[in-house]
C-alpha cells in the first residue's frame, strides 16, 4: 500500500520548546485521517511541516513521495485549508476562482464552478461579506479544485456553528467520494472525526500517542473493571493505556491483540471518545510511554 505521509524522528523546536518530538508515522494513501488532540498539542505544527510551510528541526518528512514544497511539482500535490479559512476579503468569489485557475496547473474549473453553484454563493459577492461558513466553503472549494493528492485541513470548522460545521463536513465527504485524494483533518471535535475519518492519529504534548486504522484501534482497546490488582499482575501482552483504583476496585484501559479470558474482569469495548481521552490522560501522567503505531 502506498504512503501519503511518512515521518521519521520528526521534530520541530521553537527556541527552547519542542512543538513536535520524535514523530514516526506511515499514513496510507486514500484515507481520511483524523488528527486529534488538545490545543497546543502540536497538530498545526505537524500539518505545517507536511505542507512545507515549516522546515523540520530534526528528522525527516515525506509527503506524496517527496519533500514538502521541494519544487513546483511537489506544491501541486498538496492542498491546504487553515483554521481561519484564509480568503481575501476584498476579492469576490469569482476573483478567488480566477486566482486559483492561474496559480494551479491542475485546476479543475468545472469542479469549482459546480461547487459554487451548489453552495448558492454569488460569484460577485466579496469574500469579506460572506458568513464564516461561506468563507470556509470557499476556502474548501479552492483546495478541492486544485485537485491535490493530499488535502490538509487544519481545524477548518473550529469557528463555525453546528449547522455550518455539519454542512462543511458533508460537503467535504461528497468531494472525497467524487475525487481520488487523501485527506488529513485536524480537529479537537471527536464527533467530526467519528463521522468522517477511517484513520486516527492522537497527538498530545508534542508526541504521537497512537496512530492506525480507526476500526482496528477500537477493536484492540478494552476497559477492564474488577477487584483491585497491581499492574504487574496483568499479562505482558496487555499494554496499559490508563488506570484508576479505589480501595477495592481497579479499572484499566488496555490495548491488546489477544482475547481476554480472565473471568475476574468485566470487559467492554471503548468508544472513540474513550480511546482519545485515555491517551490524553496517559500522556498527562507520564512522558515515558512508548510511541505506538500501526504501519501500513
Automatic annotation (TrEMBL):
> Pfam families, alphabetically?
ABC_tran
MF terms per GO, please?
ATP binding; ATP hydrolysis activity
Xref: InterPro entries: AAA+_ATPase, ABC_transporter-like_ATP-bd, ABC_Transporter_VariousFunc, P-loop_NTPase
Q: Which SUPFAM superfamilies match?
A: P-loop containing nucleoside triphosphate hydrolases
Q: Which UniProt keywords apply?
A: ATP-binding, Nucleotide-binding, Transport
What CDD domains does the record point to?
ABC_DR_subfamily_A
Domain ABC transporter: from-to ranges: 5-230
Tell me the PROSITE patterns matching this sequence.
Answer: ABC_TRANSPORTER_2
The protein depicted here goes by the name: ABC-2 type transport system ATP-binding protein
